């Protein structure tokens, strides 16, 4: 091959490489190297998205089923996912559905997710059930709870509070305040079924925008957890209850603090 031909070949290979990366980017919603589906963990119409603790696209069909069952739900059907999508459920991540189908719900067309289409992006019934995806679960018993919160301060409560929470609840609260600010969490009331290692019911705090990284702690019992201040401008709270024994629930307040307020807070705590 001539020198010129070799160079052209290399250039072509590079172009194909870039194209493959771009295609991945469009299909799976990578942005600045971060999977931005992780912010969409809230539930809608009883449907919610889960990924493996190991991360994105790690669940076989069997494992996906187990994840939903563990939380008292079942795999969502295509119709349940569509019903959730119609009230705004938008997730940029393909997950297992009932009967081995795979897809994800797109509300707003975007170039980086869903091939610019709106609707359920349907990968069809998978022949190979060992493929690894995320999962969409359905749990009609779960009360509406969680969500994305961007107010500078807010009170958050367990589902049904001040009544006792019910069995088989799962809630994610994603808190995002102004860039450069941090989030101070302060508990006002706390009563969650007590159990060794809080395996039955618990509230978990994550110092990140998802429940995959930044694990801070898991809490149960009736002692108020200590205040917590995030390292960045985002935080995630996750509440889970199992299939028996409930308790009073919790009430907490979060406040967005800037660096000078933070300095005062820290000064107070040491004085
Ligand atoms: Ca329980």
Automatic annotation (TrEMBL):
Keyword terms, alphabetized: Cell adhesion, Disulfide bond, Hydrolase, Signal
TM segment ranges: none
Signal peptide: 1-27
GO BP terms in the entry: cell adhesion; negative regulation of inflammatory response
GO terms for MF: hyaluronic acid binding; hydrolase activity
PROSITE patterns: CUB, LINK_1, LINK_2
Disulfide feature: 68-137, 92-113
Domain CUB: 145-257
Any one of the GO CC terms: extracellular space
Keyword Signal attached: yes
Residue span(s) of domain Link: 46-139
Pfam families: CUB, Xlink
Quaternary organization: Interacts (via Link domain) with inter-alpha-inhibitor (I-alpha-I) component bikunin. Interacts with ITIH2/HC2; this interaction is required for transesterification of the HC to hyaluronan. Interacts (via Link and CUB domains) with ITIH1. Chondroitin sulfate may be required for the stability of the complex. Interacts (via Link domain) with various C-X-C and C-C chemokines including PF4, CXCL8, CXCL11, CXCL12, CCL2, CCL7, CCL19, CCL21, and CCL27; this interaction interferes with chemokine binding to glycosaminoglycans.
This protein's name: Tumor necrosis factor-inducible gene 6 protein
Species for this entry: Danio rerio
């Amino acid at each position: 091959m001539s020198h010129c031909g070799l160079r052209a070949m290399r250039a072509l290979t590079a172009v194909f490489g870039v194209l493959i990366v771009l295609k991945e980017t469009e299909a799976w919603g990578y942005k600045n190297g971060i999977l931005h589906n992780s912010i969409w963990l809230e539930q809608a119409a009883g449907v919610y998205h889960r990924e493996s603790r190991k991360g994105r696209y790690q669940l076989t069909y069997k494992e996906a089923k187990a994840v939903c069952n563990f939380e008292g739900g079942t795999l969502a059907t295509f119709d349940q996912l569509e019903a959730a999508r119609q009230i705004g459920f938008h997730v940029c991540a393909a997950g297992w559905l009932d009967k081995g189908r795979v897809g994800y719900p797109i509300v707003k067309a975007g170039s980086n997710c869903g091939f610019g289409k709106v609707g359920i992006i349907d990968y069809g019934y998978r022949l190979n059930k060992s493929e690894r995806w995320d999962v969409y679960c359905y749990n009609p018993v779960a009360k509406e709870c969680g969500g994305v919160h961007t107010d500078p301060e807010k009170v958050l409560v367990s589902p049904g509070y001040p009544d006792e929470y019910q069995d088989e609840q799962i809630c994610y609260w994603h808190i995002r305040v102004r860039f450069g600010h941090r989030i101070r969490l302060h508990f006002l009331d706390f009563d969650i079924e007590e159990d060794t290692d809080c395996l039955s019911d618990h509230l978990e705090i994550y110092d990140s925008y998802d429940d995959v990284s930044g694990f801070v702690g898991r809490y149960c019992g009736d002692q108020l957890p200590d205040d917590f201040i995030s390292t960045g401008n985002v935080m995630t709270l996750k509440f889970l209850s199992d299939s028996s024994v409930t308790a009073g629930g919790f009430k907490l307040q979060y406040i967005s603090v800037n660096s000078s307020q933070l300095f005062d807070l820290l000064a107070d705590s040491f004085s």
